[in-house]
Amino acid sequence: MSEEVSRMSEGFLMEVCVDSVESAINAERGGAGRLELCSSLLEGGITPSVGLLQVVKQYVRIPVYAMIRPRGGDFLYSDREVEVMRKDIEMMKSHGADGLVLGALTEDGKVDAELCMELLAVGRPLPVTFHRAFDMVHNPVVALETLISLGFERVLTSGLDSSVLEGLPLIKKLVEQAKGRIVIMPGGGITERNLQRILEGSGAQEFHCSARSSKESTMKFRNSSVNMGAAVSMPEYSLKVADMTKVRTLNAIAKNTL
Fold first, then answer.
1. According to the model, what pLDDT value does residue 7 have?
2. What is the CA radius of gyration of the chain?
3. Would you say 49 and 28 are in contact if contact means Cβ atoms under 8 Å apart?
4. Taking 70 as the threshold, does the pLDDT of residue 235 lie above it?
5. Phi, psi for residue 242 in degrees, rounded to 5
6. Beta-bridge partners for 16
7. Of these four, 8, 63, 80, 204, which has the most CB atoms within 10 Å of its CB?
């Protein structure tokens, strides 16, 4: 029995999105059943480096699904960006990813079935999650059927709203529509305060969160007049890291929801 299946038998599976080795270790120690590995969670997650994947795989035993997203922004990709995605899938596969997380849309807000089919073929035999590009589709009922026919294992969604709590009525409908043909995984704004309501209100068996806290830099010398990123960015001397206590709390809430 795989680690993932054994954790599911406890009732719920918690996936934690992480963008560092420290976060990955904390998430596993807190009881996560799976990791979504990204870089740049500030942008909603983009493809992690091969180095990050390799080191994370050295330190954790739970499944690691690698994000395949060449940039932030929308999910309409150029031919060259598709080339990058294909190469990234090959690299993640060959360096030990247990699954992939990807998604692409057409300009009119439909699932790009042709491109997704192509990327799924490159990714085989790895299981693939369709990420929150789903929250940007025009018609979620039609989009879900497309994902099922393409062979995606699950879809991550906030119910096409700003957070899972707002999108809860749609998530419940999607779970009912799916009838077990695809996993509906709520994600986006899940906290200790709302998790029980989300699990009870949706009927979902898996959920996705970041469970992060701010961690102060240990730098003693600091130059506060320089900013390394765009005008709107994280402070240079503060990091966001998955918090083992938060993960543990969320896990306990999920178990008690049974």
1. 44
2. 18
3. no
4. no
5. -55, 130
6. 35, 209
7. 204
Q: What is the DSSP letter of 252?
A: H
Cis peptide before 125 (omega within 30 of 0): yes
What are 47's two structure tokens?
Answer: 């493809």
At residue 253, the pLDDT reads 94
How far, in Å, CA of 67 to CA of 98, rounded?
11
Lowest-confidence segment of 11-15, 30-34, 54-58, 66-70 by average pLDDT: 11-15
What is the CB neighbour count within 10 angstroms for residue 157? 29
DSSP code string of 13-41: EEEEEESSHHHHHHHHHHT-SEEEE-B-G
For residue 148 the two structure tokens come to 């099922």
Give 202's contacts (C-beta < 8 A, 6+ positions apart): 164, 168, 171, 172, 175, 184, 186
pLDDT band at residue 10 using 50, 70 and 90 as cut-offs: low
Three-state SS at 181? coil
- Of 212, 175, 205, 206, the closest CA to residue 191 belongs to 212
Question: Which amino acid is residue 175, in one-letter code?
Answer: V
Predicted confidence at residue 42, as pLDDT, reads 78
Query: Whole-angstrom Cα distance, residue 69 to residue 144?
Result: 20
